[in-house]
């Protein structure tokens, strides 16, 4: 994903910031969009459970039998920890965009 310019939207800016921290998200545009929505909807209040719900929604389309498509609080702690880097990226993107500072 290229750097934002004057023709990009506020959504593109969130996508760009997320892919800077997690380049692999560029290969999963639907998941990237779910996380970009969290940047704007939850901002600094995003939780690992929110990230897991977004991931579960995305994963349920391609692998509905995936063993981690269960409520966040039912996941093993080591699996729960996998969501934290994305929480951090979402919160950082929101902060960089000035979202949540109202």
Automatic annotation (TrEMBL):
<feature type="domain" description="DUF7701">
    <location>
        <begin position="9"/>
        <end position="94"/>
    </location>
</feature>
<dbReference type="Pfam" id="PF24792">
    <property type="entry name" value="DUF7701"/>
</dbReference>
<dbReference type="InterPro" id="IPR056118">
    <property type="entry name" value="DUF7701"/>
</dbReference>
<protein>
    <recommendedName>
        <fullName>DUF7701 domain-containing protein</fullName>
    </recommendedName>
</protein>
